[in-house]
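subagent[fold] <- orchestrator: predict structure for attached chain, return tokens only, no commentary.
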Amino acid sequence: MATDRYYLTEVDKHSDSIYCHHDLMGELLIPQHYHKKAQFLYVEGGIAYVKTDISTYFLPARHYMWIPPGVKHSIHPNSEDVMMRNLYFPVEKKDVAFYEEEGIYPVNDLLLNLLLFTNRWKGDLYKGSRNYIVAKALKVLLPDISGKNLSLSLPLAKDARLVKITDYIASHIGEAISFEDLAKRFGLSTRTLHRLFVKDLGMSFMQFFTISRMLRAVELLQDKSMPVSEVALAVGYNSLPTFSNIFYKMLGQRPSEYANGRNILSE
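subagent[fold] -> orchestrator:
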């Protein structure tokens, strides 16, 4: 791993500063690392996968991820041209529980405008400076304006049998996979397979399958090469209203809204 990357050498250099970094990814992998500061991560122009030791988080455009201090993570964008906007915040004694949990949240107009204000900043922001006050305001507002922590993550299978099964699901996401057929294909009873999902992943097969489908739908909508109706079919939904309702429940907006969204911070 390179030792001259800003996220390894600069973020924690000054413990009481807020560190700011906005730039194109320029690479398809930021290797696993961690910070003593918490990270606010926003991406535009694409999608990023954030992998921790226990989950793979899916960070679509117009959403942000909060990564608490000390959480080991790697970042995998779907393109080198993804714009990544980061603010790193020092830990404070009065921080509320919100800041202790990783999560993904939609970005509203207020947050976008505050991010727009930071658009040209780079490096350390020190206490007492105008820029520090604006960045600190963004952090203070997060617990009140972020809404629901979205279920945009999939736990990583550890059991070798389940690794093969989840790989199969990923490659057949648009098909009607029944739980019974899946168990039979991999030589397991339905009872054993259910226990595997719950014990290893902490969720049922249907929960895992639904989240997998919605994450694939986000990728297709972000690409903008297919209408919403075709995206629904591509991820296995013959009913557009059903697809739209499930998408809304997970992402807080309709698929048509997401498809028509724009990156207002694009340079």
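orchestrator: received. Logging for downstream: The first strand starts at residue 18 and ends at 24. The chain has ten helices and eleven strands.
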